[in-house]
Fold Succinylglutamate desuccinylase.
Amino acid sequence: MAFLKQVKKGRFLKATLDLASPFESGEWTLDTGVQCKLPMRGVLEITPPTLSGHEKDIVLSSGVHGDETSPIELIQRLAEGILKGEIIPAHRLLLIIAHPEAINAHTRFVTENMNRLFKARNDERNVDCVTANALQQAVSDFYHGSTQAQPDRWHLDLHCAIRDSKHYTFAVSPYTDNPTRSNRLFAFLQRAQIDAILLSNSASPTFSWYSAEYFSAQALTMELGKVAQFGKNDLTRLEDFYSAMLALVTEVDVPLEWYGETMSVYKVTRTLTKQTDAFHFTFPANQANFTHFEEGTLLGGDEGVEYTAAQGGEAVVFPNPNVAVGQRACLLVKKTRVNFREQVTVE
């Protein structure tokens, strides 16, 4: 079946992954009045039947890492519901299945970690760089297509972790000087019953950071469970998140409700960067995210340096000693409290 025809029947994921089928761009209107546009493979732009003048511009992305399949299934579920007329969005949407080559290969990436390639346009030295460039352009075009004088931009980049975690679901708020930690964003996370949020303290060229830094989007990297193959994800554990995401795209606004202690909040205390090939951890390679280490515990080292847990202890997130030299090997974090204001701040 031709690419465009598959998408129109609701098979957004199947069409995206069918690399033998030539890509076809297209624009069409559903019986519900929803307008659809395919600017590139894996990218579906949705415009609601009527524009209220208060709509958000929401990017929902998945598949930046090809082996993280549960978020891809959630995006397919949402796209299918819209394409079949069962869901009518109230906001402009950009639905993304980001890296079909890596998804088909059942790998995190092909040559380079694509979620480190969103700082600026890349030299097109491999498929990961080519894809990252195309996604940056697609997001830029989408945000610039806003009908609002002061756009309300959001970006949820959906992932799942390669290891166990003390928190089954958590979000990472990228660091930027822009006002991208609104109380509406935190209220959404609470409604989605996300277990924890991690507040980054330095820039990192991830997909969500790109939208936060260049477009002031309310942006998050969402970690939704653990990596599994297609068909083996327990999506019932993500139903609260999906329901909240569905409400985000179909309701005019997020209720500003905040119960404080229902979600753990962490701040980054340090980022450990791999300086040489001698970098190592003292704990197992499969150590769970958010494992806490008491003050003074030896965590690892590099050539000429040892790392120990700081005063009051620290927890480790995203530990990976096998990254390339110069890349982040882990984050060290501590729990904190926040002030629930128009822009959420650490106490």
Notes: Residues 270-338 form a domain with the OB fold (Dihydrolipoamide Acetyltransferase, E2P) fold (CATH 2.40.50.630).
